[in-house]
């Protein structure tokens, strides 16, 4: 952190230059970053309509939120989509990173670069492509499943939009598609930093590749895994554009894939209920903080008993 | 069966063990294919008419209709306008981010100023909060106070400098710029800004450019905020424009996909040139351990 050694100027001189360098950030961040966050809590106590004005209503937005079935449905969908996307993504990314970390792999840069391509495309484009791929009648996914003979197992012509779980799978696949390469690179960077002699001694002890992965690689990635879990939770609770593009602002006819952030957007765009939207924003934040805290302590516990 | 397994994983005897198992290459080929195929498919659909795509099995090769679809896209939204708007906005944001974030990051890494520790804690704290939290109030501010609705300032000014960029540049400068070098430059009589410009900037320029690329991509692809503050078609960014083609009940996939293709093409071209740099930038910035 900011130790004394890392400051080069005597205090009075550093004060002047340091403040000068950091002042544009303070101004912009203060006005457009910090102020809106603090003020949101205030707005959530109001009935706030951009046209009709605003009046103080105390905790009513939050009371309404707690009895709003659409809110609970959005909570359920947000968590469901998060789990269906985050768990497979982590497993696949660790696997790919493990392949990419092999020092004898040919074409290292090529593989890394190709896997990152989806990450530069916009969520909107990805969502448009995947809506087409998951179309019920002519979509590539259903057609491919038919050719693979899955229809004999009773799986055919899945309605990827209308049904709850299939729609969550379709949306999760968009998220995985766009993030997998990025996550793989993060894990790869971390794996490459693991000292090689740990593997050599494990190998001498007769550990198989799989055992080395389980008992050397994974424990060494503790910090990265914690970091990705927290970042993933924050991102997962903000899932918004995929469901919006996939099925409109309500998230499907019976809100089967409406998420919290999408519900917030709906309150601004359709209902003009800015106070209620702010209350949803506060709720998303509280959920994020709680889950991040739980994640943090759970991973701390696990890593504490490990070492 | 075991022979088949051996073919995949390589022979079991340690002496002859392949250095990279076939499974690795097979998996990488599959995932590389999965990464590219949807984008190829985007062009296939964008260049066919809807009946061609609705065949079973669907046509897997690009058709002749791309320019017809493109014309239809142009009839629906001002595409060139949107691309120019987006490029201007994204470029401005990227340049501002590089300039301001390196400066603030330098201050956090190497200089002393009042409120340094406290503000760093606040920055990290806000990075943990969902982006949607402040958006309602930011919207109210833009509409009622700044009157920047339909004004690019509403997009550019708030994202000129960000907590993520400052924090990242702080880490980079802390790791890459040795204090001894700064001391030496100081003893040589360098003024503070000269030291920053001629010692710090050259060292961190590659990382700063990656930050610029991140900002450019992020701004190009952002949808939520532009869709709230821009509602006149003349002012649309490319994402907002493409979303207009995505009317809830239209099933004109060729039209939508053509729009999405046009929104993605510039980024893919950019990626050809900067892809490797992005890869190393992401890996440099990763948490290790």
Which helices and strands, and how do they pair?
The complex is a heterodimer of chains A (307) and B (289).
Chain A (H helix, E strand, L loop, with lengths): L10 H33 L2 E4 L3 E4 L3 H7 L2 H32 L7 H13 L2 H11 L6 H8 L16 H29 L3 H9 L4 H12 L1 H15 L4 H7 L12 H10 L4 H33 L1
Antiparallel strand pairs in A: 1-2
Helix pairs in contact in A: 3-7, 4-7, 5-7, 5-11, 10-13, 12-13
Chain B lengths: L1 H8 L12 H25 L3 H4 L12 H11 L2 H32 L5 H12 L7 H12 L6 H4 L6 H14 L2 H9 L4 H30 L2 H6 L8 H8 L7 H33 L4
Helix pairs in contact in B: 2-14, 4-14, 5-9, 5-11, 5-13, 9-11, 10-11, 11-14, 13-14
Description:
The complex is a heterodimer of chains A (307) and B (289). In chain A, helix 3 runs parallel beside helix 7 (164-192) and helix 5 packs across helix 7. A two-stranded antiparallel sheet of chain A has the order 1-2. Helix content of chain A is 71%, strand content 3%. The longest helix of chain A is centred in the first third of the chain and has 33 residues, at 11-43. Chain A is mainly alpha-helical. Chain B has 289 residues and is mostly helical. Chain B has 14 helices and no strands. Chains A and B meet through helix 1, helix 3, helix 4, helix 5 and helix 6 of A and helix 2, helix 5, helix 6, helix 7 and helix 9 of B.
Q: TL;DR of this structure?
A:
The complex is a heterodimer of chains A (307) and B (289). Chain A has 307 residues and is mainly alpha-helical. Chain A folds into two domains: 2-43; 68-306, MetI-like fold (Orthogonal Bundle), CATH 1.10.3720.10.
